Structures are given as C-alpha cells and as structure tokens.
From TrEMBL:
Location of the protein in the cell: Cell membrane
Transmembrane annotation, as ranges: 6-28, 40-64, 70-93, 119-137, 149-172, 179-197, 217-239, 260-277, 297-320, 363-380, 386-405, 417-438, 444-462, 513-532, 538-557
Superkingdom of origin organism: Bacteria
Keywords carried by this UniProt record: Cell membrane, Ion transport, Membrane, Sodium, Sodium transport, Transmembrane, Transmembrane helix, Transport
PANTHER family cross-referenced by the UniProt entry: LD47995P-RELATED, SODIUM-COUPLED MONOCARBOXYLATE TRANSPORTER
GO molecular function: symporter activity
Family label: Belongs to the sodium:solute symporter (SSF) (TC 2.A.21) family.
Record's protein name: Sodium transporter
Biological process according to GO: sodium ion transport
Bilayer disposition of the protein: Multi-pass membrane protein
Amino acid sequence: MNTTIDTAVIVIFSAFVLGIGMLFARTGRNLKSFFAGGEAVPWFIGGLSLFMSFFSAGTFVAWGSIAYKYGWVAITIQWTMCIGALITGLYLAPRWKKAGALTAAEFIRERLGLTVQKVYIFIFTLVSVFIKGSVLYPVARLVSSSLNLPLVPCTIGLGIFMIAYTAVGGLWAVMVTDILQFVVLSAAVFILLPLSLDRVGGFTGFTQNVPDDFFGLLNGEYTIGFILAFVFYHIAYIGGNWTFVQRYTSVDSPKSARKVAFLFASLYLISPVIWMLPPMIYKVINPSLAGLDTENAYLKICQLVLPPGLLGLMLTGMYFSTSASANTALNVVSAVFTNDIYKGLINPNASDKQLIRVARGSSWLFGLGMIGIALLVPAAGGIVEVVLSISAISGGPLLAPPLWALFSKRLTSRATLWITGIGLFVNLFFKVLSPWLLGYKLSRAWETAIGVGLPLLLLLGYELYQRSRNRTADDYLKYQATREQKREDALLQAEQPEEAAAIRQQNRFGLQVIAGSLVFTAVMLFGLSLLATSGAGPTAGIAVVILLAALIPWRAARKVKLYSDLQQAQKFVNADNR
C-alpha cells in the first residue's frame, strides 16, 4: 500500500466534495427548495440518492463481517431490502407523494395530531442520531487503521467534515454527493472484484476452498425466521423511514415516487452480490479472523490487492457513502425540527431567511450528537450489534403506525400512542431487562420478529375491532378536511414565476454539477490507471464508462432548460390568442 498516494487521493477528493457543498450555499430560497428540491427532483436522481442513503461504511463493515463469517447469507439479508422496496414502490411511495406533506412529521401532525407528532419527533430524532452516529464509527475505524491515524481524533474530524456540506447546501448538496459516491464505490468494487478473484486462482479456486455451507441462503443465527422478519422490517423501514420519505416527496408526481422505489429495488437485487464477494473471497486468503476483527475483512482485501491510489479512492467512497447516509438523516431531522418544531410551534411567522439559518444550525447540532454516539460504539459491542439492536427495538413501533395511517380511516391518535408505547416497552424489556433479570435472551430471529410483528398485530386487531363497530376516526375526518383546504389554497394561490424559475435553475444547476463531478472522477481514475502496478486496464476502462455516464445528467439538465423555454413560448402563444 502506498500511503502517500492514498492519502493524497482522500484529501483531493474530500476537498472536491466540500467544494460541491459550497456551490449550493445560496441555492436554498425557502424550506421547499432547501429540503425537497422544489419537488422537482428527477426520479432517477432520487432513486440513486435513496440507494446511497441506505448505504454506508457499515455496509462494508457490518455486512462484510457477516459475509466473511457466514458467506452468502449476507446477500440473502440484503435481498430483503429489494423486496421491501418493491412493496414500497407498489403501494407506499405514491401514497406519500399524494399526501402532499413536506415531511413525514407534517403528515403525522395532520393525520394523527400534534401530540403524536411531538412524541414521534422525539423518538425519531433520538433513533436517527444513534443509528447514523453508529455508522460513522466503522468508517473512522477504516480510515484510522489504513492510514495509521488515532481513532478518536479521526472520528471527530471526519464527523465535522461530514456535516459541513449538508448544513451549507441542503438536499441537492446531499444528492449530488450521493450520486458521486455511488459512482466512486461502484468503480472501486468493479476493480477490486477481479483482482480479488485473481489472487485466489479464479472463481474455481474461490468456491473450492470455502466451508461447505458458505453458499447456503441461510446460515448461523440468520434463519428463515430472521429473514422473513427482516422482509417486514424493510417494508416498514424503506416505506416509512422519514429520511426515505423525503425522496418520495421531492419528485414531481406519485408515478415518479414509484420509480424512485423501483430503481432502489433493482439496484439492491444486483449490488449485494457484487459488494459482498470480496470479503467472502478473503475467507479463503485468511480464514483466521475472529471477533470484532471480522469487521476488518473488507479493508484487509482492499489493502492486499488494490493498486496505489485505489485504496484511497475506496476509503473515500466508504467515508462519503457513510456521509451520504448520515447526511440524509441530518437533512431530514433538520427539516423536521425547522418545519415542524421551530416554524410549527415556536415561530410560525419566521421569514425564509430565519428558517434557513435555523435549518443549518440544527444540522450542526444534531451532527455533533452523532459524533458523540460514534465514539461510544466500541463499548456497545460493535457496529453489527448496535445497528441490528436499534432496528429491532424501534423499527416496528415507530414506522408501522404512520404507514398504517396512510391507508386506514379508523386509526386514532390515542391508539397510535398506545401501540407505539407497548411495542417499545416489550422490545426494550426483552433486549435490556430480560437478560439481566431473567437470564433469558431472544435469538436474533425472534428479536426482529417480535419487534416488527407485535405492532402489526396490534394495528390489525385495532382495525378489525373498529371495523366491527363501523367507526371512522375523528382524526381521519379532520385530516380529510385539512387536505381539502390545502387543495383549495393551492388553487387560489397564483404560481410565483420568480420562485418557479429559481427552482428550475437550482435543479438544472444540480444536474450540471453531477455531470461535472463524474468528469472529475473519470479524470482521477485515468490518472490512477497510469500509476497502477496492477489493474491498470480495468481502471482506465471504468474511467471511460464514467465519462460517458456524465452525459446522462448533462442531457437531463438541458431538458430542464428546454422545458423552461417551452413554457415561456407557450405563454407568448396564449397572450397572442387573447
């Protein structure tokens, strides 16, 4: 490993990404443009951004650890995300767009009331800070280990850098970085995979030297019960997590929202196979890793086979994919705080300039909280334990009731609070108190099944009970009246030509920045191919592919401009006809 070249790549690419955030410093005119891209984000950008928001270094560390220890089951687990996204695309994403709310918290307030919204905002903020703080830890560990830097200062420095461009640029800054990291990580893995296979004598050498059950769909504690529970969990998580809902509401129509989820599903059908093979291959090279050391399997194979500079590129991709995931959460937590707490409860008459200041300040506040959590992850048992435990405890109780409310006219605010409270209490009891008081600990499968299944059973029981009484919730009737009033207000309000033009300009600019970022990445890969002692051909070939891919957002940007010109021409025609 050439540390100097890898460090140079990390510094150059990081400076470039921070520069991207600065480019969007003045594009957010109001909350709608800052947090939702003016509700005109192209669906393919939203889909790729959603995919990368789900991605992080934890994917390489946590799932990479499972892939190293148990093999193919790591891919099986991630395929549950594909199923969850398919269900979301068919039923949930269009519903969120039709709801007409800027954030999921706004929908909860309108449908289930202010008290439920306050409780959910508190729980969601707490859970988001814990989960996204925990995924900052693995990338800090990767960078510190590979570049011989102290872990704690590395965690703090990376965390501060992580939140800088989100606080500055809003949703478009996050999405541009999402797309860039998707390209960088894909390029690095497509170079890593053939080099890894070559090291073990090709695919045959790989398959003949792994344990007999290594390619089983199920393995170890990851049983059929766990997989089925994880399917239901990911339906709730992908369909109802507030960070992902933002991707469905920031596009222009329910049809586009459906496409966002379907693109995510197709990417998660293919990508786990490509992402998880390198740590599985490392099992052949070095089968002796144990305990938390298995979390380093991905880093070890990268250090072993990647040529100079590409390890730095891989680490940068891992870091910024983690940033993408954490920044999406930051953007949404900030949106909820600004839109639903500050504007909704503290200062309803705040100006757009005040709201943008609060949005950026709250991004820093919550980001610092994430850094604090990241520093505590090692004491909690490692990234796999933290992420799966938090998901099992909070996923069902927090996400299932609002999703149910998208379809139900019988669910009340009181029932929602009871179901959420019972679910959280039972999950916390079995996770925290039962092992201590009773000496009994649930298996991973039962932990996930109860965490997701109990809220669903309670919701179904309540729905059937209310249906037998032919009751419609007062909350639902108020929600219908509110939606009708919003439709009437939207029809009465004349379109602001200046704001519409500014939103088109912002979105066109975002697409142009994506195109330029891809060109920059291609040039960097061309340069690294000249320094490579191995893999020069694949590196240069992927650079060509990325350069050609830059044409996609560039042409999309031109279409945004042409659309604006056509609208202007139509106005002249209408004026002539009068």
